[in-house]
C-alpha cells in the first residue's frame, strides 16, 4: 500500500478529529439556533451546566470551523482511500454515540 498524506497517521488523525468535531458542532448549534440553553465547556460546571444559546452557537461554530479545516487542510478535501473513509465514518459515529450518552447523563445531573 502506498502511503499518501491522507493515509499517514497525521492524515488519519485529522480525519478522525475533524469528523468528531463536526458531529459535536451539531447539538450545540441546533440548541443555540433554537434559543435553548445547552451544556458547553463555558458552563458552570463545564460541560454539565447550561450555557446560553449564543455561547452554544459560538462553540458549535468553532467546532465546525476546526473540524472542517482538519478534513480539508490536513486530511484532504475528501476521503481518498477506504481507510480514510472508514476512519472518518467510524469516528463520526463513535462521537455521535458518545455525545448522546454524555448529554443524556448531563441532563440527568443538571
Rounded mean pLDDT score:
86
Q: From the structure provided, what is the oligomeric state, counting identical versus distinct chains? A: single chain
Distance between the termini: 49 Å
Binned, the helix content reads 55-70%
Strand content: under 5%
Largest sheet: spatial strand order: 1-2
Uncertain regions: pLDDT < 50 for 5+ in a row?
none
Structural class, from secondary structure content? mainly alpha
Write down the overall geometry.
Answer: elongated
Biggest sheet record: 2 strands, antiparallel
Q: Which features does this protein show?
A:
two-stranded antiparallel ribbon, 3 helices, 2 strands, 68% helix, 4% strand, elongated
Description of the molecule:
Helix 1 runs antiparallel to helix 2 and helix 1 packs parallel to helix 3. It contains 3 helices and 2 strands; from the N terminus they run αββαα. Strands 1-2 form a two-stranded antiparallel ribbon. The mean pLDDT is 86. By secondary structure, the chain is mainly alpha-helical.
Amino acid at each position: 500500500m502506498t502511503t499518501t498524506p491522507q493515509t499517514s497517521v497525521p492524515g488519519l488523525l485529522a480525519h478522525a478529529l475533524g469528523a468528531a468535531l463536526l458531529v459535536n458542532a451539531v447539538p450545540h448549534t441546533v440548541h443555540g439556533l433554537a434559543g435553548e440553553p445547552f451544556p458547553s465547556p463555558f458552563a458552570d460546571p463545564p460541560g454539565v451546566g447550561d450555557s446560553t444559546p449564543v455561547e452554544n452557537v459560538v462553540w458549535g461554530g468553532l467546532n465546525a470551523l476546526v473540524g472542517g479545516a482538519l478534513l480539508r487542510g490536513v486530511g484532504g478535501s475528501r476521503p481518498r482511500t477506504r481507510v480514510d473513509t472508514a476512519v472518518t465514518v467510524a469516528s463520526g459515529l463513535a462521537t455521535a454515540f458518545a455525545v448522546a450518552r454524555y448529554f443524556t447523563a448531563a441532563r440527568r445531573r443538571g
